Amino acid sequence: MSTGKRLTRRRFVQTGVAGSVALASLGSGRLAQAQAAKPNIIFIMADDLGFADVSSYGQRDYTTPNIDRLATEGMRFAQAYSNSCVCTPTRVGLITGRYQYRLPVGLEEPISPQTPKGIGLPPDHPTIPSILKKAGYATELIGKWHLGFLPEFSPLKSGYDKFFGFFGGTAHYFDHGAKSRTPLYEDDVPVDRNGYMTNLLGDRAVKSIEGFAKSKQPFFISLHFNAPHYPWLGPDDEEEGKRVKDFIHYEGGDAKTYAKMVQSMDHNIGKVLQALDLHGLARNTIVVFTSDNGGERFSKIWPFSGMKGELLEGGLRIPAIARWPAGGVPAGAVSEQVIASMDWLPTLAAAAGTAPDPAYPPDGENLLPAMTGAAAAKPRKLYFRFRPG
């Protein structure tokens, strides 16, 4: 069963008797009760994080206690795949719930300075934030966008009420002022902010949670870290950062620096979880943690081969964890259900009591039956394409 050891015989009988009724309602009575008070949603995405780069998936060289907390209190997916082995197409699949090949922007692998002008996520295409916004949610993107540039494209044009982050595929961890090569933006305006990028994004998420807690409006936060994407710079590497000329940074970095980058992200995820606890929001907030594709140079991808930019398990297999106590997601569960990035749109829409736009039917599947124990893992085929630009 998709919920692993935590699915009791009694629960199995109950879900079996419910049959199609359980599947139609997408879970148990607890799910329906949670939907009556719409769940908040925080979708956390790492950048270039490998399958075994967190300790709950096999990392033994360092620990990630806050990500592991999500796995202990929620469900860990053992067979999760990104929609692509690089970032832009996966993000297209994630935000639209459809195979990225349906849109020109999804064929940019990834968007780069050589991408023709006018290529980006069409503002009129339904997205996770636009669907949730229509259902009464406040929406915010914190971190990486990488789906097109101003003036034609922006998170604010695709369903987000607020944006704090950067537009391109990478950003410097320290040099990200308004006049830098990779500036930070507040909505569509470049801003000066000092500090380590991972901390700035984590702090912004905490601040947003505090504001939403006061407003009482259900919220959807996309927290898309740039960690551990190169340049490989830890929180104490500001001086090294001044020497970085090539953002690919092949002349620098090492396994210890990479570990510090992942642990910094984990620390900031811990701050987010603490904010939810502090404001009494943890029980009815869906928290998802995953990566946009497989790992890079210093990543741990054992027992698989391949890496980012390759259509092998190492380039596509990713960690994925979901926690939602009020929705009936059992603690400490492990699912063998094959999932993909594009599944999160129909899943989160269903959890919010709404549905994808019928004019743009999703290729992704609703994961709530697997997450709540109303359905066993089922065979599934996924399709991948990669032609580097």
Describe the structure.
Residues about 1-30 have low confidence and may be disordered. A hairpin with a 2-residue loop joins strand 6 and strand 7 (about 190). This protein has a single domain (about 5-370), classed as 3-Layer(aba) Sandwich (Alkaline Phosphatase, subunit A). It has helices spanning about 10-20, 20-25, 30-35, 65-75, 85-95, 130-135, 195-215, 240, 255-280, 315, 345-350, 370; strands at about 40-45, 75, 80, 140-145, 160-165, 185, 190, 220-225, 285-290, 315-320, 320-325, 335, 340. A 10-stranded mixed beta sheet has the order 7-6-5-4-8-1-9-11-2-12, sandwiched between helices. It is an alpha/beta fold and about 400 residues long. The longest helix has 24 residues, at about 255-280. Helices cover about 30% and strands about 15% of the residues.
Instruction: Report the total helices.
Output: 12
Structural class: alpha/beta
CATH architecture call: 3-Layer(aba) Sandwich
Instruction: Label the overall shape.
Output: globular
What gap, in angstroms, lies between the N and C termini?
Answer: 40 Å
Describe the strand arrangement of the main beta sheet, using strand numbers.
7-6-5-4-8-1-9-11-2-12
Spans of at least 5 consecutive residues whose pLDDT stays below 50 are: 1-28
CATH superfamily: Alkaline Phosphatase, subunit A
- The residue-averaged pLDDT reads 91
- Give the biggest beta sheet: 10 strands, mixed
